[in-house]
Design brief:
6 helices; 10 strands; ADP-ribosylation fold; disordered N terminus; 4-stranded antiparallel beta sheet; alpha+beta; single chain; 2 domains; 3-stranded antiparallel beta sheet
Length: 193
């Protein structure tokens, strides 16, 4: 099904800290624990916006649909964590759900980047990039974004992914959004520090 982008009917009047709380709650609901909130997520990761709003209201009672849209739009544009289309919302990446979220395959840019803490580099260069507790390996087109992500768990290191060569060799890539690409596994052959 092709979904059309959603235009907000109104404008949110909530504070930035509340928008951050909503965004974090959306991550919990859509990426990790929809069942805990009574939300049903389809194979592409979409959930009914009204169900998600009801779930958000269990923690933030005054939240409106406009607040959800504002929270989605307030995130750094290159990260674009969520999509709202035709009355449905989804997390674009980062899922830890048991059922795998489906993404469209695509031909990646020639080079992608992965930020990781320094202490993980040796293991990655031996085993390749693995999804760990996520459904996919997360890669980005932006060096800066990769470094910020890598810094979450210690001193960051930047890994260059030869995505063109990996794709030619049969590694399947999935496009999450303009800045993020996903893969099941990136063998060490295609990685450089």
């Amino acid at each position: 099904m092709i979904r059309q982008p959603h235009a907000a009917a109104g404008r949110s009047l909530v504070s930035t800290p509340t928008l951050v709380r909503i965004s974090k709650l959306l991550a919990l609901i859509l990426r990790h624990r929809p069942d805990q909130f009574g939300v049903v997520v389809d194979a592409e990761g979409y959930a009914d916006l009204r169900e998600v709003l009801a779930a958000v209201r269990t923690r933030i009672g005054s939240a409106t649909a406009e607040d959800l849209v504002a929270a989605v739009q307030s995130i750094e544009p290159e990260k674009r964590r969520y999509s709202i289309e035709e009355g449905e919302i989804r997390a674009n990446y980062g899922h830890s759900l048991a059922d795998r979220i489906q993404h469209q395959t695509g031909v990646p840019p020639a080079t992608l980047w992965h930020g990781t803490p320094q202490h993980a580099v040796l293991r990655i260069l031996q085993e390749g990039l693995l999804p760990m507790r996520r459904q996919y390996v997360h890669l980005t087109t932006s060096k800066d974004l990769a470094m910020r992500i890598g810094a979450r768990h210690g001193a960051p290191r930047l890994l260059r992914v030869d995505a063109a060569q990996a794709h030619t060799a049969g590694v399947i890539f999935y496009r999450a959004n303009e800045a993020f690409w996903l893969a099941d596994h990136i063998p060490p052959t295609y990685l450089t520090v």
